[in-house]
Amino acid sequence: MANPEYLFLLVLLPVLAVLIWSYLKWRRNVQSQFSSSRFFNRFFPETNHGAQLVPYLFLTVFLLIIVALSNIVGGKELEKNRQSVQSVMFVLDISNSMNAQDVSSSRLAQARNIVSQTLDAMAAHRVGLVVFAGEARSVMPLTSDYVAAESYVQAIESEVIKRQGTDFLKAVEESVKKFKSVPKGARHIVLLSDGEDNEGNANEALALAKKEGIKITSVGIGSDEGAPVPEFLFGQLMGYKVDRSGSTVLSSRETQALQSIASGTGGNYIDGNNLEYAAELLVQEIQNSKGGASLWVENQNSIRYYQFFIGGAILILLVIFVAFPKNPLNY
After folding, report:
1. Which part of the chain is the VWFA domain (predicted)?
2. Is the model's pLDDT at 321 over the cut of 90?
3. Which of 74, 173, 174, 202 is placed for a possible disulfide with 136 were both Cys, Cβ 3.0 to 4.6 Å?
4. Strand 269-271's sheet: what is its strand order?
5. Which one, of 74, 73, 84, 170, lies nearest residue 131 by Cα?
6. DSSP 3-state assignment of 214?
């Protein structure tokens, strides 16, 4: 990762240059006062004219170190490795209850951030994206284009699907369609949800996943105590969901349901309320999955140039101390 903030230190270079120039001018003025004195040669012995460049060489060293710290990145280099490639479908619950604000800015925002951090730590695996509420929709098929995946993830809102509810069966059915080219046993779903099963078909979803050789890792988001469900109109908060009696509805995370879905397919349950912890465990879960295809994978690595600037700085310092071994700062 580049560190462009260090480039702001470059504003110090003109200041240092002016200070050096002022010092050298002051020193020449002092020397000129002794120019007619018979002690001049004793106080100011003749020096190599090249020594006048020493302060500016130190400025150049300072410049090179700043550029090295900024860690300039440019271009790409291809690296081929043989590795096990997993096919992972991220399945996001975008029902209204995911707008509850008991985690982060909302449960849905937490889910998006978990997926984003997981993508940042993954390499070469194929990923897809399905969203669901009362129905399911494929947002992105399996791909290794993580930049596109990231843009799709961050654009997801609960308004994408109009029919509300939480239909786990439809989510699995939609994922199965996208897994057609993936052999059974190499299919992996990451389910991010608060676990509320409005349709009551979690068992059917589990049975279908087992039949299709799909491993499900479930990530539970939301508090066990529950939180009110916001209702928005054109992006504006209009109030909170109420039941028929007018009481505010509290939506809580159904941890047990999510645990059952995961364990029934050989997967694990992850508490998604801690962003960094959840993303780290999720990456480990994906990397440790078995059954992925063994393929030659091309990875694009950024080319970094900091070592050339560090090398240049060291070379200049060596020249200074070799050419002026006594005291290079005193010339």
Report:
1. 87-265
2. no
3. 174
4. 136-143, 126-132, 87-93, 187-193, 214-220, 269-271
5. 170
6. strand
Is 90 exceeded by the pLDDT of residue 23? no
| Block residue for tokens 């505010």 | 248
Output DSSP code: residue 213: T
Report if pTM > 0.90: no
Q: Which residue has the tokens 């209850």?
A: 97
Which residue(s) pair with 200 in the sheet?
none
In 62-90, which positions are buried (b, 16+ CB within 10 angstroms) versus exposed (e)? bbbbbbbbbbbeeeeeeeeeebbbbbbbb
Write out the two tokens for 194: 């608060």
Q: Which residue has the higher pLDDT, 98 or 57?
A: 98
Query: What does pLDDT average to over the chain?
Result: 84
Contacts of 53 (CB under 8 A, 6+ apart): none
Domain ranges of the chain: 20-72+305-330, 78-298
Residue 31 CA, chain-centre distance (Å), reads 59
CATH of domain 78-298: 3.40.50.410
Q: Is 163 left (phi over 0), alpha (psi -120 to 50) or beta?
A: beta
The yes-or-no verdict on residue 148 having pLDDT over 90 is no
Which H, E and C letters describe 245-283, residue by residue?
A: CCCECEECCCHHHHHHHHHCCCCCEEECCCHHHHHHHHH
